[in-house]
Amino acid sequence: MQRIIEQPLGVRVLNDLAEIHHRDAVGDLLAAVALFALTLAAAFAPVAQAQIQQARGKATVPYGGRSLTPDVKAKALQNAQLKAVEAYYAEAGESESTNFDAIRPKIIETPDRYILDTTVLSEDDNAGNQQYTVAVRVSLNVANLRNDLKASSAVGKATRSERSALAFLFV
Q1: How far apart are CA 72 and CA 27, in angstroms?
Q2: DSSP per residue, the chain
Q3: Beta strands 52-62 and 115-126, pairing class
Q4: Separation between Cα atoms, residue 90 and residue 94, nearest integer Å
Q5: Tell me: the pLDDT tens digits for 60-89?
């Protein structure tokens, strides 16, 4: 009479020692090495850096006259967007924040190159103090910001002949 053996998928059970010789030892070893290699690759794979980042900014602009004008609103919105870019660089660290000053005029001149979209989070028209405040969340094109930062750095401005051929000196 033949025995019926139920085994879970992928799990082998040896009924007697004679079955040890019938297993595929090389195949099992290769499968284990492949699984280990995939696990290792997944653990040490570099994390992709996002090219779009969110940042928040807030600006208050005083205005004269009796009422708020569209020009004052536009100026406050532009100032809030610039504050959001400043906040992004402030979070990035001291050296990034220092480099930001070099490209600030470019950002003011062409904000659409660096700011993909703007969402107004809150607006406040304080007529008593004649101040308009706006808070925004912007999506920054980090790739363009980084490229312009590199181009405006001392190394980026140097011509090919001014650059050193030797990058490191080993002593």
Answers
A1: 73
A2: -PPP----TT----SSGGGGGGS-HHHHHHHHHHHHHHHHHHHHPPPPPPSEEEEEEEEEEE--SSS--HHHHHHHHHHHHHHHHHHHHHHH-HHHHHHHHHHHHHHHH-GGGTEEEEEEEEEEEETTTTEEEEEEEEEEEHHHHHHHHHHHSHHHHS-GGGS-S------
A3: unpaired
A4: 7
A5: 999 988 888 999 999 999 999 999 999 988
* Residue 124 in tokens: 């406040």
User: At which residue do the structure tokens 């979070």 appear?
Assistant: 91
Answering whether pTM is above 0.85, one says no
pLDDT tens for 103-121 read 888 888 999 999 999 999 9
